[in-house]
Amino acid sequence: MPVVHVALPVPLARTFDYLLPAGLQPVIGARVSVPWGKQRAIGIITGSSESSELPLERLKPIDSLLDNDSLFTTSLWRILLWASEYYHYPIGEVLFHALPILLRQGKPAEVAPLWQWFATEQGRATPPESLKRAPKQQQALAALLQRPVYRHQVSELELTESALQALRTKGLIDLRSQTVATQDWRPGFAVLGERLRLNTEQATAVGAIRSEDDQFCRLAAGRGHRIRQNRGLPQRTGKYSGER
């Protein structure tokens, strides 16, 4: 049974070894539910191996694998590991602070639908003036005849839930879910006009900087004596592991 190294949101600079049940694949960056003392905790897989520093019979199996894919892009995963090592901060707390709170709680990594109030065909054929005896319902129907309203906009438009439910009972309005489409925002950016051209000195400086990708910052110019700084990013050696 493979061993997975799991980062937990605890102030310890290490991961914890668990057994991965047969049939499951260790997905680096995926969440797992694991036993933690007398409780259950959400952790993130940081690695896997066939052995542990502890006897395998002392390791507990994970409860469940919560994700089929990593929650982190390669670049984000890399910078988070670097930050943990460079700043000597617990890897579990670093990874969990990079996640939205619902994912930290073990909720599904999926886009939740947005619920929207809209006027039905019957509602569109009903003049708001016919609801003069129910001013809140009249106000709500008039708003929905202009455009659909998402649930989170109800309070902004000073509509009441009771009025909306009353209109729904009458068949004048209803709720529908709208799936939020996710897309990469980067291709939408374009450079307008001609790109600026670097002069010789600028091109030399940019070339020198790009040739030292993954290196630490250096002082290009400043007052006082000259400072030399060319220390590279900490290299990740080995894995975080240890007993629970």
Automatic annotation (TrEMBL):
GO terms for molecular function: 3'-5' DNA helicase activity; ATP binding; DNA binding; hydrolase activity. Coiled coil: none annotated. The keyword Oxidoreductase does not apply. Residues 6-100 form the Primosomal protein N' 3' DNA-binding domain. Keywords: ATP-binding, DNA-binding, Hydrolase, Nucleotide-binding. Its EC number is 3.6.4.-. Pfam families: PriA_3primeBD, WHD_PriA. It is an enzyme of class 3 (hydrolase). Residues 113-175 form the Primosomal protein N'-like winged helix domain. GO terms for biological process: DNA recombination; DNA replication initiation; double-strand break repair. PANTHER family: PRIMOSOMAL PROTEIN N. This is Primosomal protein N. The lineage of its organism: Bacteria, Pseudomonadati, Pseudomonadota, Gammaproteobacteria, Enterobacterales.
